[in-house]
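Title: [Solved] Serine hydrolase domain-containing protein 3D structure

Original question kept below for reference.
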Amino acid sequence: MPPYDDAVALLPATARALRHRLAVAQREGRTPSLVAAVVRDGETVWSGARSMVDGHEPTTDTQYRIGSITKTFVAVLVLRLRDEGLIDLADPLGKHLPGTQAPAATIAQLLSHSSGIGAEPRGPWWERTPGTLRPDLGELFDVDPARHPAGRRHHYSNPGFAYLGALVEALRGAPWGEVLQRELLEPLELRRTTLLPRAPHAGGFAVHPWADVMQPEPLHDTGRMGPAGQLWSTVGDLARFAAFLVHGDDRVLSAETLAEMRTPAVAPEAASWDVAYGLGMQLIRRDGTLLAGHTGSMPGFLSCLLSDVDAGVSAVALTNVTSGASVAGLAADLIGTVLRHEPRIPEPWRPLAADAVDPELLALTGPWYWGANPHVLRLRENRWLDLSPLAGAGYASLLRPEANGTWTAVDGYCAGETLRVERSADGEVSHLDLGTFVFTREPYDPDAPVPGGTRGWT
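Solution (posted by the thread starter after getting help):
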């Protein structure tokens, strides 16, 4: 990625703006403590903390419970299974994990909260009670868990991720926490992310809504429900995790698969088109910027990790209060502050290297017509092509070169479709075929095989 400037550190004015935003969040959210960090291009460039007790601010090594950010960790483990060929996301859960109450739910539906199963398990509030109350994976619900038709809408389900954690256990032959430690935490050096708290860690509190008084919240091991929100972590560890979610790490998960996790999997609710969900990742559109990550809450704790992937900037915020503080708003504002104060400096324009330009590809560039609709084809680095309409609506796609001489569209309406260069009997290029759409050098070229033929212009 192009740099922001020659230094890693933020400018003093940017750092002060971030400190101010953090201080406002701690005061207005009435949080016992609050700690946050900003990551840019894979490096932590700022961190800050506030506390109700002077001189006792948390550090980037202080553990907080991170709640549903746990789900993103679990989703990474599930996508690793898919990338290894052990599962298909279209597989029903029952194919790999017998004995659940949702055997027909697909793995993709569970990852995207679109299986239609209930939001919470049976029994008393699972976040405030021991997991021993729900020891049997086959009895997470008192009745049929279906609340909506599968695949039709987003309906957040904590038990859905309990099932996914159990799926990891079944296919790896070890508890999900051990698998997490071996396959993700150790490679990424997340040494302070654990199932149960390890000192130094914050205590969780509830603050009275109408008075500045508070009480401690209970702490329990949630057992089978752990994959939905059990983990504890630090700002330091989550900053490294954020860098991984943006850039990928082939020891854990590729950047391509992480991009798949950030793709909306089901339509959001009609009243919240600025919020969607991918595969274990939340998507938030704020001030025209798409942010990806996850929020989290458990009794006594709120958390948030968000990234602007295109800009390479992430923010993490952790606090030890049950409600009242908007850590998602804080994280989004920290990202926005950095982007406003220090926008990325673009790379200078440079021509393609002469020995990297294929004359035949160069000859393909320029205007092409889909019927009478003008498009332009441009040559990019490494034989990539870029097709876009000259004006108005059309078919815009970035096209990836394949070894067989074709290209695959990676975005837009034609994503996944194949572009072929078709030639006439004399070897000259006749037309382009993009998923059966015929592009010609002239509008409705009479010499090209346009379906239905052409009548000529009069």
